[in-house]
Amino acid sequence: MTKPRYRMAPSPTGALHIGNARTALYNYLLARRTGGTYVLRIEDTARDRSRPEFEQTIFEGFRWLGIEWDEGPGIGGDYGPYRQSERVDLHREWLGKLIDRGWVYRCFCTPEELADARKRAQAEKRPPKYSGKCRNLSEAETQQRLDAGETAAYRFRVEPRIVEYRDLVLGDVREDAGLWGDFVICRSNWLPVYNFAVVIDDHTMEITDAVRGADHISNTFRQIVMYDALEIPPPRFGHLPLILNRKKQKISKRDGAVSVEEYMTQGYLPEAVRNFIVLLGWNPGDEREMFSLEELVDEYSLDRVSSANPIYDIDKLDWFNGVYMRGMAVGELAGRARPFVKAAGLNIDSSGNGYFEQAVALEQERVKKLTDFGDALAFFFQEQVDPDMKFLVRKRGTAEETASALQKVLGLVREYGVDDVGVSESYLRGLASELGWKAGELFMPIRVAITGSRATPPLFETMQVLGDERVISRLNRAIALLRGVPSVAS
Ligand code: GLU
């Protein structure tokens, strides 16, 4: 059996949408699982909308997700070029074959005429089907009009028939070609339209399996009639049900991030995004939800892709992200968090050995996304924190009473330090009982004094990471604030 050749054929007309990322991932997994080849082809036939910067965004998005291609832009291969716009000579050659076989005629209808006809059809509630006005022009008349300088598109002659094939995901499907009308496959300026170019490219690149979004089904039927007209075998086709939101509509920005670029900048981990995406339509047949790329390569198959539309739930992505972040080695997580924390303006480079990693370790259980580290770690890196006065004073107590308790804390910290979590806990608990306070009544002012806020990682661990010097300086400042005197230097 020949080795399968899968492909991903994105159009560089915008961001890398989650639907396309899913298609790319599925094709990649199929190629890896079958020992086949994964081809990346850029479909830039829509010249006015295609942009090199979108190509870059797509490449970066795939690489970020760990989806590497075997042939394609930047890598080359035996079936290049891998940009559709660089293959037009080939498209023309094959157009010539269709013309020779009588499948294509020149159509002189202007865009205005066609738009009028569409409007009329709409008003009369008929399908907008081409009237066939130019279908039977004689060769002589066609030539005469071309010689006179009229422009003319190339239209494919559709014969009434039922088109059917077995879809790898949807099973047996069929459509009545009698409903379509003849369609344009090449513009008057010789530029092929997507539907024709894709047939020639898939054929000449020896693609065996074309797996893509279900929005392409109507194209697939048209492509099949072109394969038949050229007497070349079509690839196997598989169509992935579209991802919908909870209201069963097409997903949009309102449903949360929808492009890979947004996932990157919003602090999601690629492994979480990949895990989230793969389950949008595929399931392993049991309750498991966490999959590494290697496990997916072992397990993935189109048999387990559901024909129902998967529902997009960004909360699930947040959940995956949290799980992956919590399971990650601290050093690794700190490395991933670093650029986000810097972008948030935290000066992490001047802090001592391992300080940043220790701070990350303390927050690891609490953050959901890499972007959360900016806020969560801020107090570790500020020169001074601004304690929230509302919570700095002990409940139902006075400012002076809290100040004098913190003064005692300061003395203990000076004496015993904050290095040993067990020791800190025991002297602070001891102090609380000496004061006749509940432990929490003492811990809260300390927490607010050294971090600025109430919601922080566990107190003794936080003190340990901050170290004696910072703890002492912050306690001093809090005491000064409570007593209404200007802050003293520590
Ligand atoms: N270029 C098409 C798109 O971006 C994909 C076509 C295909 O996979 O055949 O939607």
Account of the 3D structure:
With 490 residues, this protein is mainly alpha-helical. It has helices at residues 18-34, 52-64, 88-100, 111-123, 139-147, 194-204, 217-230, 260-265, 270-278, 293-299, 314-326, 330-343, 355-363, 372-381, 389-392, 399-416, 421-435, 439-451, 459-483; strands at 5-8, 37-40, 104-107, 153-156, 162-167, 171-176, 183-186, 209-213, 236-240. It contains 19 helices and nine strands. Helix 16 runs antiparallel to helix 17. The longest helix is centred in the last third of the chain and has 25 residues, at 459-483. The site of glutamic acid has 8 residues, from strand 8.
Helix-strand layout with pairing:
Layout: E1 5-8, H1 18-34, E2 37-40, H2 52-64, H3 88-100, E3 104-107, H4 111-123, H5 139-147, E4 153-156, E5 162-167, E6 171-176, E7 183-186, H6 194-204, E8 209-213, H7 217-230, E9 236-240, H8 260-265, H9 270-278, H10 293-299, H11 314-326, H12 330-343, H13 355-363, H14 372-381, H15 389-392, H16 399-416, H17 421-435, H18 439-451, H19 459-483
Parallel strand pairs: 1-2, 8-9
Antiparallel strand pairs: 3-4, 4-7, 5-6
Helix pairs in contact: 1-10, 3-6, 6-7, 9-11, 12-13, 12-14, 13-14, 13-19, 16-17, 16-19, 17-18, 17-19, 18-19
The chain binds glutamic acid.
Main sheet attributes: strand count, strand direction, barrel closure: 3 strands, antiparallel
Measured by DSSP, the beta-strand proportion falls in 5-15%
Share of helical residues: 40-55%
The value of Rg in angstroms is: 32 Å
- Major beta sheet, strand line-up: 3-4-7
Q: What distance lies between the first and last C-alpha atoms, to the nearest angstrom? A: 77 Å
Average pLDDT taken over every residue: 94
Number of helices: 19
State the secondary-structure class: mainly alpha
Uncertain runs:
none
